[in-house]
Design a protein that fits this description.
The protein is globular and about 55 Å long. It is built from 15 helices and no strands. By secondary structure, it is mostly helical. The chain has two domains: 269 residues, ABC transporter involved in vitamin B12 uptake, BtuC; 32 residues, no CATH class. The N and C termini lie far apart (54 Å).
């Protein structure tokens, strides 16, 4: 094995602190069962954020309609469970496969043109799918949503409970597996070629990298992962509605990456934890003005930066 291959293999190995963090996360539904539903929600949106970071942070593809794949995954998993088979893992695999096909088709048009073109195309795809789900109410339930989705036990043994502990562990395990997969992807030669394309696509093409083919591949993978997140959302809640395609869902996941940072896998996880925790705390404190305080936090984050804001928070706690 060459020295370059050894270096890539070393980078792909998880660090000791990552094992510790994931061990703590997997224990959270047991330690705080009253917040299991919130843990499940944070985990799902973290997976969704990682899928967007794969194309935005690592590949430089901007998107305002990533919720299209999230929503397609949600409706696919819900319809599969309701009409074909309630097995969660099988439904999740089908949701990922369907959204991967959708991502491959969309990549043919999304990857052409400038960043502004990509923004409009991705947003347009999400709006088209939302309106299509609204019109096909005999299949999707329309504005009332797809109700009556009953999931079978995970692995045939673990029933979904009212407290949401099984849903939380199920979402955490799926997200952990995706995280380990993405570590191998981003630290592989394929992942480093994506960073080269992001930084200088013309130079990448000049040295023999097939830019368009690799961007299509990563866009398809990101769509499949977003579909997994949407499938988890439908399976853990037993419901799918039109808001899964909404623009606010795409905007929220962009804010999460702004908070956590792009171009590293932990950015989506950290951003999801901070965003949903702030949302929960501020909305409980001031239900009418929580968006003002969240917006103020984002402004301070952009003006001061993460490190200065963290030092300011530490100083305030000590004071």
């Amino acid at each position: 094995m060459s020295s370059a291959a050894k270096s890539l293999a070393a980078l792909a190995k998880p660090r000791w602190w990552e094992f510790a963090v994931w061990a703590v996360l997997l224990c959270l539904p047991f330690w705080i069962p009253s917040h299991a539903l919130l843990i499940s929600e944070i985990t799902i949106i973290a997976l969704f954020a990682m899928s967007l970071d794969l194309i935005l942070g690592y590949s430089g593809i901007v998107s305002l309609g990533h919720a299209a794949f999230f929503g397609m995954g949600a409706y696919t998993a819900a319809l599969f469970a309701k009409h074909i088979n309630p097995d969660p893992l099988l439904g999740l695999a089908v949701a990922g496969a369907v959204t991967a096909v959708l991502g491959a088709v969309c990549s043919l048009s999304v990857l052409r043109g400038s960043d502004l073109t990509r923004l409009m195309v991705t947003l347009g795809v999400a709006l088209l799918l939302q309106e299509l789900a609204n019109k096909l109410d005999f299949i999707t339930g329309g504005a009332d949503g797809l109700q009556g989705v009953v999931m079978g036990p995970v692995l045939g043994r673990f029933e979904f409970d009212l407290l949401g502990q099984t849903a939380a562990w199920y979402a955490l395990c799926v997200t952990l597996l995706v995280f380990l997969l993405l570590r191998q992807v981003v630290q592989s030669p394929f992942g480093f070629s994506l960073k080269t394309i992001r930084d200088n696509p013309l130079r990448a093409q000049a040295i023999g990298i097939s830019v368009h083919a690799r961007l299509m591949a990563v866009y398809t993978l990101a769509a499949a992962l977003a579909g997994l997140a949407g499938g988890l959302q439908a399976q853990t809640t037993g419901f799918a509605s039109l808001d899964v395609f909404g623009f606010d869902r795409s905007a929220d996941v962009l804010l999460i990456l702004v908070i956590g940072g792009t171009g590293w896998l932990w950015g989506g996880i950290v951003g999801a934890v901070v965003f949903k925790t702030l949302h929960s705390l501020i909305s409980a404190w001031t239900p009418q003005y929580w968006m003002f305080w969240l917006g103020l936090f984002l402004v301070l984050l952009m003006l001061l930066g993460r490190e200065r804001l963290l030092r300011l928070w530490t100083w305030g706690r000590r004071a």
